[in-house]
Amino acid sequence: MSIRFTAKARRGMVVLTVATGLALGVAGCGGGNDDKKPEKSASASKDDGSKPSAQEGTSQDPLAEMKGPQGLFLQVTSATRDSGGFVTVNGNLKNDGSETAVVPSNLSGNETEIIKNGSSLGGATLVDSKGKKRYYVLRDTDGRPLTTTGLPTLKAGESVPVFMQFPSPPTSTTEVGLQLPGFPTATITISG
């Protein structure tokens, strides 16, 4: 139950961050003067401690990029170890192809309990090669995977934010391999 609450809280924080970024972007587009006042206000906002650059840094410096079938492209933006004993991997799944892409069913994995909950990234795993362990996507008490579910058909150029939660490897493990069916393995660094 607390993991479900954490996932909902995380999604709420992402929505709040995006809404704040959009509001700041709209506010920055006002005016129309070409003098140096906007430069001063931009530097003042950096000094005030606002963090629009954190969102920009996430999209500019991904942890990993994975090309999959049908032009699908997964950009991993963060992998964070939480105090609750799990790792949350966030990213964006994009259709880089020129045609509409149906998210393949094999991304959900092959476990009956996960498949019955619809399309998801339930087939993802983290691999700790040093510890020789594989970590599967966590599930709630009803067997639903703790990952993005109900993945839509993606039009050309369309993307959706995604997340996956795994049991946490030991704190000494910072690099793991992220595996997703149909995608090449990507090495990511866990923060936190």
Describe the structure.
The structure is a single chain. This protein folds into two domains: 2-28 and 35-59, no CATH class; 62-189, Immunoglobulin-like (Sandwich). The protein is built from four helices and eight strands, in the order αααβββαβββββ. Helix content is 27%, strand content 26%. The protein has a four-stranded antiparallel β-sheet with strand order 1-2-3-6, with no helix packed on it. It has a four-stranded antiparallel β-sheet with strand order 5-4-7-8, with no helix packed on it. It is α+β, with helices and mostly antiparallel strands. 23% of the residues are buried. Residues 27-66 are annotated as: Disordered.
Topology diagram in text:
Layout: H1 2-28, H2 37-47, H3 52-60, E1 64-67, E2 72-81, E3 86-95, H4 112-115, E4 125-128, E5 133-136, E6 159-167, E7 175-179, E8 186-189
Antiparallel strand pairs: 1-2, 2-3, 3-6, 4-5, 4-7, 7-8
Protein name: Secreted protein
Region (Disordered): 27-66
Organism: Streptomyces cahuitamycinicus
